[in-house]
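Technical note accompanying the year-one report. For the benefit of new consortium partners, we illustrate the data format agreed upon in the data management plan: each record pairs a sequence with a structure-token string. No post-processing was applied to the example shown here.
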Amino acid sequence: MRQSARREERLPEENKLARFEQAVLPHLDAAYNLARWLTRNDADAEDVVQEAALRAFKFFGGFRGGDSRAWLLTIVRNACYTWLRQNRAHELEAPFDEEAHGVEGDNPETILLEGADRQMLKEALEELPLEFREAIVLRELEGLSYKEIAAVADVPLGTVMSRLARARKRLQLRLSVRREGGLS
């Protein structure tokens, strides 16, 4: 009888683990991708994702279904910002550059189709201020909708649209300058 009682006590925890693995583990690559772009370092991204996965498991009982990918990316984003505040607070300050925001012309996708190099794009992305880099990664690399990005970043939909527009303009400027040989 004692074994039966112990087995019943383990079932909810085993069930939680199985549900967690099914809901969260398929999205670990997306979690790492976001953390990598926000921290700009492989090892730091791995640490942040590990911390985020632990938080996600701890609070998995509060997950009420829905989009587990967006839920996990929200936790990863918050873990990244916590880590950045503790380790690189200066990166959280992004000055507004009017010149970079006012660029007109082709969008980054067009520039890429015209032959922009992957390394050039990576370097240009890494130069973006954190909130712009985050928006681009979530939209263009992870394929989240504007509404999902707003939920993950905990900002209004208009802010998402504004950040994406500004990020794309900055990318365009950086890529144009690099294509013309202005930056190495």
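Partners are asked to follow this layout when depositing records. The chain is about 75% helix and 0% strand.
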